[in-house]
Structure formats: structure tokens, C-alpha cells
Request: fold
Amino acid sequence: MSPRATTTTGSFDVREFAATARGSHRAEIDGEAIARAGLAPDAVHLIRVLRDLERGTLDRMRNLLVTATHKDARVTAFLATWAFEKYWVADALDAVLGAVGADTAPLAGPLRRSAAERAERRGPIRRALAGNIAGADIVAGHVATGLVDELITNAAYRRLGEAASVLSSLVATLIAVKDRHVAFLAEEAEHKLAASTRAVRLARKAIAQAAWPIGATEIPAADRSFFEAFVFGDAEGRAAAEAIGARLAALPGLGQAQGSSLVARLVP
Reply:
């Protein structure tokens, strides 16, 4: 099936999404203005965490496409453009770091280790084996966790915009890019969870096992703790987490228990 055929099963137009993909944002970044205004250390720290998370897209694509997700033409057509856009989001964050003379090296340090996140550290061979057993219903878990992840990072970008007004225009652009990702993933999650009780079971398991945001298992423990505290650690952050939990709870077959569990994991 071609990507063209994938655009007819929902209101989100995957073909139009691909045709209007956002590439480099560097022409919109006023590096001199950013350098003059400067950035608070916490804003720089958050940018570095977000940059590393966005850079992890190819590893995440590999983990998705060794499973039955690669047979879903509509999802794979979306993922190609999604990965392209996330690459350029990471590049924009690198440009901002460069403008203020911040360290652009990947974050380094001891990782957080926990039994609960063991499944997230599985390599592609183990993921392929587990995915083949799960079959096509695993796609529901992938789009549901993808939706939650995009909502989490959207909350982080909004916090960045509040912390660094000089970045407000860029942050608005990046959120607009990511809002289209949210729209597709929400539509697919609704459709796939409503279609299968087994898909619901697999999605619940995937959500329970996921490290948030996705890719966090490769972010140093201290930087993960900073992200959690900065984005979700105050009353405004908790409200943002509760809104994400409510969005998850409203998906077919999931419910309040799933939403409340997610909130408890997001709020430090």
C-alpha cells in the first residue's frame, strides 16, 4: 500500500502532512537577539534535555519498525515525516545553544536504573520477538504512548517559552509542528483502541512500562530529575500533568486509573 492510500482512513491527511513538512528553522532564529538577551541556566538545561530527546528519534523509529507497526502503511507514512521534523527541531535547539555559547555536547552522566523500566532498555531483537507475538494490536500501544510523549514534550516547550521570552516565537513554531504530531497520534489511538480489546490490554502494558518522556532511559538521572521538577514540579506543572492524564484517560478502554497512574509518575 502506498502512502497515498493511507490518507483515507481518518480526517488527518498524511499526504498533506508530508507535503508541508517543516524543515530547518534556522532562518527564523535571531541568534544575535538571543545572545543579547541571554538565557537563564535552567532554560539552557531544559533545551539540552529536549535536544537530546529529539535526537533519539532514529533509535525510537528502529524500535517501532521491528514490530508489526512497519506493516501499518498509514502509521509508517506518518513516521517518516515525523522523524524528519523532529530532526530539525533538535537542530533548532542546537542553534539556540550555539547562540548563547552553551555546551552543545550530548548530556553525560550515570543513568537512572529501575526494574520498572527494564522493558524500555530492550534491544531491537527482543523487541522484534515480543512485537511479532503481539501482532498488529501492538500499534495501538505505539500510537498511545507516542501521544502521551508528545503531550509531555509540548508541556516542556511551553515551560521553556515562559522561562525565556526571547524564545517565544521559536517555541510557538515548534509547538505548532508538534501539535500536528499530537493530532495524528490522537486520531490513530482513538481508532485502534476502539477497535480491539486486545489492543487496549497491550496499550495499558506499554503505558505502564514506558519511561517518560520516551527516550528518558538514555538521559542521565540528574537531568531526568531536573526535567521532571522544572516541567511538572509546581502547581502549574501539576495542572499540566493532570491535563495529560485526563487526555490519556479519555482514550477508549483506558480510563481514570491509567490517567492517575501517569500523573503520579510525571509529578516529582
About this structure: Residues 69 and 139 are 5 Å apart (CA to CA).
